[in-house]
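During the no-cost extension, the postdoctoral fellow (Dr. R.K.) reprocessed legacy sequence entries with the updated structure-token encoder. One reprocessed record is reproduced below for audit purposes.
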Amino acid sequence: MFESAELGHQVDKEVYKATLPGLREALLQAQSELAESKAFPVVILIAGVDGAGKGEVGNLLNEWMDPRLIRTHAFGRPTEEERSRPPMWRYWRALPPKGRIGIFYGSWYTAPIIRRAYGEIKKAELDNMIEEIVRFERMLTDEGALLIKLWLHLSKDKQKKRIHDLQKNPKTRWRVTEVDLKHLELYDKFRSLSGHILQESNTANAPWVVIEGFDANYRNLTAGQYILESIKKQLANLDSTNLKAAPPILRPIDKLHVLNTLDLHKSLDKSRYAEELEEYQGRFNLLTRDPRFRDISLVIVFEGADASGKGGSIRRITHAVDARFYNVVQIAAPTDEERAQPYLWRFWRHIPRKGHMTIYDRSWYGRVLVERVEGYCSEQDWMRAYAEINDFEAQLSAHDTLVVKFWLQISREEQLKRFKERQKTPFKRFKMTEEDWRNREKWEAYQTAASDMIDRTSTVDAPWTLVEANDKYHARIKVLKTLCEALEERLNGLKD
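Re-encoded structure tokens follow.
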């Protein structure tokens, strides 16, 4: 969930100064329209890593908009009165009326995170709390509320630097508490736990938006613009029969995303490729013949642009294993039978039994890629699909299925080169269709969709591996090596 929030996003002072007046004016206008309409309340949750600027964002929202129409709530430890009521009682009391905005610090997510991090509750209890939260948020949005959830993130190094800078300054030293220092020590635990909670509560009606918090200009503008677009979109949808429009997707102001930061110049010479191919194919073969492999199953997912090398990578995997124990499933447009079933039905059909593997050449991610870009499903459908996919993969993982997902990334120039080579080569010409050329015209839309997909579905259970694939040799070896390492880790983790 945090890949795009650790890239070093930043906005320089001049851009910030030039952008801010227009943003403030637009926020005030949207707030005025919201108050006049009295159509729905806005609930803004501000959460995230200590030192990421949560307080500053809330203060600025009150400064940029009319504070008379905003109620800000900071929830600490429950009072005696609150402890005598069900845990959600105090949040119900603080909900804003229609036409108003409520800003919540220390919301209903704080207690589950803190209690689990300090070992006060078991994972099962945590998951029950999350389920209750998701149902609560569903109720809010079904009633028409606009729920905006902002998670301000810092990498471990940047959180350490932020705390160090505060400690050095006599004027800010008081802001660093023993709790902050303790949380810094527990950073890795908090990061893993927070990722799990965000994954489980990232729903179509109330998605999380993760914002890198180190650069104040980037953080503040991004938060402000996202809130503005969310309110405007909900207001614009008032005349629609369906009030619950899908929230806008976050667009980094500096246009930085996980795919355009990959180093596509990575390569491998032919002789070394041959050596490593033999090494990793042999290693993978031995792992799939390990007696412990009979206790698990393996699902391998390949996604990427047309001509990114998915087929070649798949063949290098299948050449290494017994054909009786794998199945390659190539996903195309759904058949009439498949369209008559729930979306994930056709993928469930091919889930392997223990001791076997299924390789998906394209997969369930079509809903948030091609169906999204081409308009084959509604915006609400593909926004909802992120959570459904995460739940699907979590179910697989819970049933001892190792899910390994690859996105093969090539440049637009490399794709064009491969397209032309395919047209000139008789035995490759069949791969080219008019649709391939048409998809090239939507390159940026597909890249945006893929980046959103990676951010929202790279989970603890099934993380994405991004493969620099301009050089096919490098890509194939990275795929095989990743598979070997993931499978070794899973087998070694099995109980004797």
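The two ends are 33 Å apart (CA to CA). DSSP finds 20 helices and ten strands in the chain. The remaining legacy entries will be reprocessed before the final report is submitted.
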